[in-house]
Amino acid sequence: MMFVVRAKVYTVTWYAWMFIAVICIAVSVGLIFSLLANNSMLAIGNIGIKQLMSFEQGWFPLDGELSLVPMLMGSIWVSVGAMALAVPLCLLVAIYIVFYLPNKIQPVVHLFIVVVAALPSVFYGFWGMIYIVPYINQIKSPGASLFAGQIVLAMMVSPMLIALFKSQLETVRKKHQQQVSALGIAEYSAIWPLYVTNQLPAIFSLSILGFGRVIGETMVVTMVTGNVVAVPDSIFEPVRTLTANIALEMAYAVDEHRSALFFSGFILLVLIVFLSVARLTLARVGDAQ
Length: 289
Fold this sequence. Notes:
This protein is mainly alpha-helical. The chain has eleven helices and two strands.
């Protein structure tokens, strides 16, 4: 009887703390949303969303041109390129760890992945400045470019993606391992049709987490992309992202200039919310399968 009472108390306490956590998260997101929206109103009212998102104007605060399109395109291109480099490689590494790496070595590799994932982003920025940027400069100057940002961001997000893919594959493997053995199928032959292809919605869902991580990165892109406000014509040209623009100019921005920076933060918040909804939708599809 006492055990049942304790179990009920534990369950009620756990749900109460979960409810409090959800309320705190919702209030925090609401406050951030309100802060960004209120501080964006000056730019929206005086400049207008049409000019803030104009393809015909640039970013010249002293001349009153505050188009965010070059930085938005820079953020999207550097993030998409980084994920295009990271996702296939990380998926292959996760497959190797789960299905081919000896069980005795897997804990060591997992610990290494966790440690590397915890490294601060400035570490990757310094690494990119010392090695990646000079190497790309030998191919085509100036070195600090869209391509450099994509490579360094791909390296930065790789430990996180490997850990996520590895966890997903381990879960699916435990679920289907007995069925595969009962059918007399070699497990390696079931990797692609069963463990990968059948889990594409879940893999895309986990990839969206990585995309949200790289599109919100500030330090790395500030250090290796060149910070030129322009839509690049090639991957070897410098770019500036929304996050880097906020970090570089918020300290001295005033009036409409400052409000436009808050509006760029508002755009990032809306984008992250959209990605979160898409991830949850894909995760439900994956669970249904």
